[in-house]
Amino acid sequence: MPLQKMLLLKHAPTVTINPEFIDLGSQAYEDTYGRMRSLVQAKSLNDQIWLLEHSPVFTLGTAADPSHVLNPGSIPVIQTDRGGEVTFHGPGQLVIYFLLNIQLKTMGPKTLVSNLQRLIQNILQKYRIESSFVEGAPGVYVEDKKIASIGLRISKGKSYHGISINVDMDLKPFSLINPCGYEGLEVTQISDFDSNVTLEDVKSVAIKEIQTIFS
Prior knowledge:
Elements: E1 5-6, E2 20-27, H1 29-41, E3 48-54, E4 57-60, E5 77-79, E6 86-89, E7 93-101, H2 109-125, E8 132-134, E9 137-142, E10 145-155, E11 158-166, H3 199-214
Parallel strand pairs: 2-3, 4-5
Antiparallel strand pairs: 1-8, 3-7, 4-6, 7-11, 8-9, 9-10, 10-11
Helix pairs in contact: 2-3
């Protein structure tokens, strides 16, 4: 499957946010999903960024074709309202959810996505990993292998869902789906390049980079 690479050539406009960072540890996906929806449906939203990992789960975005879930076995499959196709979440993957009132900051969806792509690239650079983007396939790639996903929902000027970065996890479940709807798409993770990496390390790097990009 040929994939056309797109390198980020210029930075997106920087928008200032002062969010509360919340480390949720390990969470079941359905519980977290319900909490996100409740918060963004409220009249006011205090900006929050959640850092966590999920129990094994396949999630379908609004553009997902269920046929891309090939053989889920005992892993739950959950339909969501985020953008994008099918992906896998599991232990050892860092998930970061961005619950932000982007309307108050005059930040459009394209600016938010560009900033999240730059965030992921900056995190990977800390581990000396060079990455790129692929046209029509949101996320971040290392040599045509996907290492991070982006899936958002904007509702009444508020964002939720976010990004996932493969850190040090069991990648086998990705073979049970067509990741992001692409047959044969391979995945990779930070531990393939740095065997000493830990999820806690990447969390710390991510918080610093978020503060830099959005400050």
